[in-house]
Amino acid sequence: MPRRDDIESILIIGSGPIVIGQACEFDYSGTQACKALREDGYRVILVNSNPATIMTDPETADRTYIEPITPDVVARIIEKERPDALLPTLGGQTALNCAMQLADLGVLEKFGVEMIGASREAIQKAEGRLEFRDAMVRCGLETCRSRLAYDMDEARAAVQEIGLPCVIRPGYTLGGTGGGIAYNMEEFETISRDGLQQSLNHELLIEESIVGWKEFELEVMRDRKDNVVVICSIENFDAMGVHTGDSITVAPAQTLTDREYQLMRDAAKAVMREIGVATGGSNVQFAINPRDGRMIVIEMNPRVSRSSALASKATGFPIAKMAAKLAVGYSLDEILNDITKVTPASFEPTIDYCVVKFPRWAFEKFPTADSTLTTQMKSVGEVMAIGRTFKEAMQKALRGLETGRSGFGERPGVPHVPATSVDAEEVRAHLATPRPDRIDWIRTALHIGMSVEEVFDFTAIDPWFLDQLAHLVEHEAVIVERAKRGLAGFDQEFLRETKALGYSDRQIGKAVGKSEWDVRAHRKALGVLPNYKLVDTCAAEFESYTPYYYSTYEAGEDEFAPVLDPATGKRREHVMVLGGGPNRIGQGIEFDYCCVHAAFALSELGYATVMVNSNPETVSTDFDTSDALFFEPLTHEDVMNVVDRVQPRGLIPQFGGQTPLNLARGLEDHGAPMLGTSVTSIEAAEDREVFAKVCTELGINQPPNGMASNFAEASAIADRVGYPVLVRPSFVLGGRAMEIVYEPKSLERWMQKHAPQVAEDRPILVDKFIEGAIEIDVDAIADGSTFMIGGIMEHIEEAGIHSGDSSCSIPPYTLSDGLVNEVADATRRLAQRLGVVGLMNVQYAVQGARVCILEANPRASRTVPFVSKAIGFPLAKLAARAMLGEKLHDLGFTREIMPEHFNVKVPVFPFNKFRGVDTVLGPEMKSTGEVMGIDRNFGAAFAKGLLGAGIDLPRDGTVFISVRDEDKRYVIQHASRLAHLGYRLLATSGTARALANNGIPVERVFKVHEGRPHVLDLIKNREVKLIINTPSGRLERTDDRQIRSSAVQFKVPCITTLAAAAATIQALEWIHKQPLGVKALQDYHPPKAR
Amino acid sequence: MNRVPRKPARLVLEDGTVLTGRSIGASRDSIGELVFNTSITGYQEILTDPSYRGQTVLLTQPHIGNYGVNGEDEESSRLWLSGLIVREACERASSFRSGGELSAYLIQHDVPGIERVDTRQITRRVRSGGSMRVLITEDVTSPDAELVARVRNAPSVSDEDHVLAVSTKTAFDWVKGHESPFAASSPGAARAPSRRPRIVAYDFGAKRNILRSLVASGFEVAVVPAATPAAAVLERKPDGVFLSNGPGDPAILHYAVAAARELVRKVPVFGICLGHQILGQVFGATTFKMKFGHHGGNQPVMDLTTEKVEITAQNHSFAVDPAQLPDAVEVTHVNLNDKTVEGIRHKDLPVFSVQYHPEAAPGPHDSLYLFDRFRALIGELA
């Protein structure tokens, strides 16, 4: 039976901002779903607050609402659009939770909206701990012994019965927020209390510990006819106890006999049926006791997930697209496999390669956070690698991570052969406690002669995996031996063998003391080239029509074929787009968005687009996005190999963030044709001396600054320009290691800490820090002859807070026209001077009437998708076309746009995942994602932004205010407005006195050391609804820190700057006046006839 | 860890391709008909499946041997295939079920094998060129041309009657059901049988899991040699007859077709794989050799009576041509990939068969219902 005709329009809820546990994978799945449903003629209505997504492009859905994903707002959209159905399974836990709330509130019933894909009952059964356990019992499957608890007393009773260690899992959270393993009662109390806070239904599951068991996941699909297929099996390298999102995972499962695997498959089918997911994809997680094979069902997600994105990329089977098709009535046998084009989708993919996923963490951003990996996910991104063997895939993943290492055996600062004097006890301790660097300790352990058995005893990682790694350690010894003869030691046979084990040119180079380019030349001379193989869902049983490639160095056949023009049969000109690799803080979905736009734009121009990327969560690595996809690490070696094979007309490095830019120089020097702004110009903007000259020449003010390669130089510059100064390494993104220092001691401390990264060719930048300035971000676009402004954003927080962590508004909401024009003019002239072809981002600080340029980056910026949506023009697309010679005027971008409505961007932070980490903002970026709020009024737009970012705006109740002395004068008028709105005000002594003296009703509350009940007690008792707490710039006050960290724990919005307080009060004033309206993007920017 | 050094070996294809890898099995030359199997798990079941006699099996999953070998997963008492081709043979198995390493198992059973060759390239050759003969040898000195000539001059493997070679020489009773804790639960097992019907199972190369599944479905099973005449079977007064899977070309098995022709009019008959091809011939159809057959655990088959799709385990190089099937025989199952016949049923006689392997081993358990269907068919008549 084909599609359902009784429904005509479908509402899809996205997953909102990127947070830990919910990243671009839901843009990938949502975009696929929108495309699939519209192909079938359905009207698709989309709501998602995240502007940096392809799904919120106005072309993706019929009606696009960039609005907060809250039940209220979505209800208003439902009322307006009257969809027939709601598909809740493609937007992660956010969409599922929102859909459940809409159902509970009776909204769906009221407007006659049918939930498709998964019913309310099925979601309840899968998500409710008790319901799930009962369901498993009904289908004869084992789960962990467990007890539910709804308060601390019940939790304590439960642990008496279950015993320690135990696992604590809060209900209805994502990424395991709030969960953990408790080994003692103290940990138990802490984790349980936290879990109760985080859980949407205040529910905890206290569970027997199966730490050390093997962990598996099956991705399952079911259709209306009850056909069930398993798309992919995934085995975790890390044993139970580490969240799947923080585990290295491998596809397909490697260590199960067929008998064991088939029983797991039977169980997954039974779970799917018992839970009652009618159609679509789900994943089921299992634990297996390695000693006797006892199988336990851990959980199932009745929706597409991060794992299903991984499974889709690992097999070539587009799970989300299929899930959408199945939800509207198709059965699997009625849909063709996109890759083979002749066989149906009702089959199980089989793969003839090995896939390794490796998580990427961001602990360098949160040095005080506990980096132990537990059941709560802490990674911010992941890299996937494909090789013919596990060893090859593992090494590709490690070099794709971009943490400076180029494989299993090599890391900067670590000798090729670790010292044998390592303390074995220390090694064992590191093996036993999983942290991001455990893989290095495994190598060390094997290297100092620990047996696979012993490493297994401490890690519980399956000996099969460990033996594979042992093989690499053994081969390294041979490499080191051979390297004594230099490159001559690497004859064709040995080099081929080494490369097939996944070793990179850089690793070999390090062993022989040569550059990776030398190794490359030697390798090419010997004819040791990679072969490109296809990902085809069927292990070559059928012909594949989708050019989705991975490289392998095994000797054999290469399957690459250039993309031909279907009309003429001639080879099309190829253009390569370099992606951004794994998500991290500072480089994520925004850059993937730009890469995808480049691919779309160039395809429209008739080029064959070739995407190179290694991030499985993204739209860019959907095989539908480009004409050919190379799933490869972004390194010189891997990219140059693709260049050699594809022979492109050019490469676009400026869209994927800092990753491809860092490669640009090397690629160009070795003959890769680069498109867009020249590499020299990119370097000119980064090189302080050159850039200072350019600014002087153009008459643009710069804060006094200098470049240093050691402490003495830095100190001299700081003395010259005067403290405070902003210090940072060059060539980084996301403000990595950027800090404001107020005195020489701090500068010295900073230099010591970051000494390894400072070098002659990578100096540090020292700028005079302008205090209390307004920061402005400008995105410009240019075609080499026309230089135009894309958007001018006024930051809400003052300069000094990383632009990625700052809220901002288009158009500027406090700046004069004169200032805006001055900034626009400076930007245009700078773009012209640098010869920009493509995009450029410039940041300014405004103090009074004086404008200073802070930095310029001739590349796509994080704000490009936000600006594009604010002005209604796809900047990245236009830029890509400009890079291939088209002119902006011919492309319809004839005038700069100052939108009439306010567009506010609000960042989202991961503080709730890192207990005790201070939430105060600074020049080092810490946010993982952002949302957009759009409205005619600034206050309303900002209110939407805050709501979208998960900040609950209280309509009444108590506001706690505590500000530093400098702010006391200014907080008075804010407080007065709050009082006027009817809020009860609380303040600590100093602030209270300032307010009372100005006739504002305020109650004084104790600081922590002043007695009880103090402010923390009030926060914990949920008596405070909003906190305004500005930290002192120079000295950290423990009181402030405790307040902020309690605020995170108890989910009380906490504002740390006066500027943000002012904007928030505007938002509060608006919501007191009238309810927030909703408006589709298509109504803000009616589709232009093109 | 000291790894066992593996000798270089060569793989020589009939089409002239010569690849070098490493020997992982017995140190002798072997020529077989090359087939590829796309199952991700279950190499030991494949190695011990008698249907592979005369064939050299390439496994597309690159890592083979990961979980070792054990007694429980054997589908017959020995290895029957001519040779094994893998990308990488495991050197250190990991499984609590493991009782030995793959490589040692191959050597113990005198089966040559080769690793570290581009198995995907070879698979693509077979896909485009059809199945061909292949040589595995540790001879690394002879010129390529000489080796290629050896393969080309070797006798065709499909002329030989492999069934007589693999079949039991004497009749015996099979009494074991699914004793392993790692076995599928049979759909019919829960039902308390009032009486265990007696069936005779022809062993054309039967996999143990078929016999186990029959017992688990409530049958008493007597296994007879492939060439047993119908009369001898009927003397046992069976409630039904089962025709097993087996190796080779079904068109040369005149004795089996003759026996089955007699049996179908007298007792209910169920056939799997080769048994299905024999029944096809009984009803007047011919069989044909497929380009490269179906070998794997992910083949989608639709049961036309329910329109449900089952994911099936398959291992066959020949298929029944439906063109000559009489009206009295209906096609009940088709392969959704290439629309070939996967199951037939006689409209008047209690006879049905499937081309694929409901007993799985290795493969999904989606089709176990067929054993129950056989049980129900006999039950109705009893």
Walk me through this protein's architecture.
The complex is a heterodimer of chains A (1090) and B (382). By secondary structure, chain A is an alpha/beta fold. By secondary structure, chain B is α/β, with parallel strands linked by helices. Chain B has helices at 43-47, 102-108, 119-129, 144-153, 162-166, 208-216, 230-235, 254-263, 274-282, 369-381; strands spanning 8-13, 18-23, 30-37, 55-59, 63-64, 83-85, 88-89, 113-115, 133-137, 172-174, 198-203, 220-225, 240-243, 269-272, 287-303, 308-320, 329-335, 341-346, 351-354. Chain B has a ten-stranded mixed sheet with strand order 10-12-11-13-14-19-18-17-15-16, with helices on both faces. In chain B, strands 1-2-8-6-4-3-9 form a seven-stranded mixed barrel. In chain B, strands 5-7 form a two-stranded parallel ribbon. The longest helix of chain B has 13 residues, at 369-381. The interface between A and B is large, with 63 and 62 residues.
What's the level 1 CATH class of the largest domain in chain B? Alpha Beta
Indicate the multimeric state.
heterodimer
Largest sheet of chain A: 7 strands, antiparallel
Shape of chain A: globular
Spans where pLDDT lies below 50 across 5 or more residues of chain A: none
- What pattern of helices and strands is seen along the backbone of chain B? EEEHEEEEHEHEHHEEHEHEHEHEEEEEH
CATH superfamily of the largest domain in chain B: Class I glutamine amidotransferase (GATase) domain
Helix segment tally of chain B: 10
Features:
heterodimer; A: 1090 residues; alpha/beta; 7-stranded antiparallel beta sheet; 36 helices; globular; B: alpha/beta; Glucose Oxidase, domain 1; Rossmann fold; 10-stranded mixed beta sheet; 10 helices; 19 strands; 29% strand
